[in-house]
Amino acid sequence: MLIAGFPAGAWGTNCYLVAPAAGEECVIIDPGHQAAQGVEEALKKHRLKPVAVVLTHGHIDHVASVVPVCGAHDVPAWIHPEDRFMMSDPEKALGRSIGMPLMGELTVGEPGDVKELTDGVKLELAGMELSVAHAPGHTRGSVTFGLPETADIPPLLFSGDLLFAGSIGRTDFPGGSMDDMLESLARVVLPLDDSTVVLPGHNEHTTIGRERATNPYLRQVAAGRQDHSAHVDAPRRGM
Questions:
Q1: Which residues contact 150 (CB under 8 A, 6 or more apart)?
Q2: How far apart are CA 55 and CA 172, in angstroms?
Q3: DSSP state letter for 187
Q4: What is the rounded distance in angstroms from the CA atom of residue 165 to the CA atom of residue 83?
Q5: Which of 86, 101, 136, 219 has the fewest CB within 10 Å, making it most exposed?
Q6: DSSP state, residue 109
Q7: Contact, 168 vs 181, CB < 8 A?
């Protein structure tokens, strides 16, 4: 298994190229702001041929390079229907109070071929099987992508902005919901094996076992406490 990742653009969003091995077909996950050059460099370095772009959600820091990347390689983009509008209207997705100082340099809009993700589907792409789980909370259409354990890697979870090392995604954007986020953690994350590696993990990768033991949000869900009145907002990532 080959996983080539890099932080892209002003927001440092993690973009991944995933393939069974070097020299084969690959899937591109979350090509965000200024990711196109990094994608091309990784494709060349590892001799990869992209077959699809898959998106964990529709915020501009995760989709800003979808149009040029899909256009350059004539591949489709997969996104949940609840978040599809965000590719064409990122300001509505983030709220006007956020401000978009970089909007003038971004290419917004949909690529030529958009396919919609559904909960529980298994995508057969590039010789791999990606399990899609709808995980609202950060956005209404957030999803995760899972890959099963193989001989050389443990099971993987590409979590988007659902789960990080010691934290979870922020829920104060339009469409965000702490109740939905905690439900998604309970339904999508808690059933996973402790050995599952979570990508991204902020500055380091993490595992479900580590998060089960240390992440306060996941620990609350695991303990079955449903009173959210004492919650503070999730730690906010720079945007």
A1: 1
A2: 20
A3: I
A4: 25
A5: 101
A6: S
A7: yes
Q: Where are the beta strands (DSSP E) in the chain?
A: 2-8, 13-19, 25-29, 49-54, 77-79, 114-116, 122-125, 128-134, 143-147, 156-158, 163-164, 167-168, 197-199, 206-207
- Which residue do the tokens 């300001």 mark? 91
pLDDT tens for each residue of the chain, 239 residues long: 999 999 998 888 999 999 999 999 999 999 998 999 999 999 999 999 999 999 999 999 999 999 999 999 999 999 999 999 999 888 777 765 454 555 555 667 899 999 999 999 999 999 999 999 999 999 999 999 999 998 888 999 999 999 998 899 999 988 999 999 999 999 999 999 999 999 985 556 799 999 999 999 999 998 885 444 344 444 434 33
Cα(92)–Cα(100) distance, integer angstroms: 11
pTM beyond 0.85, yes or no: yes
C-beta of residue 51 within 8 angstroms of C-beta of residue 27 = yes
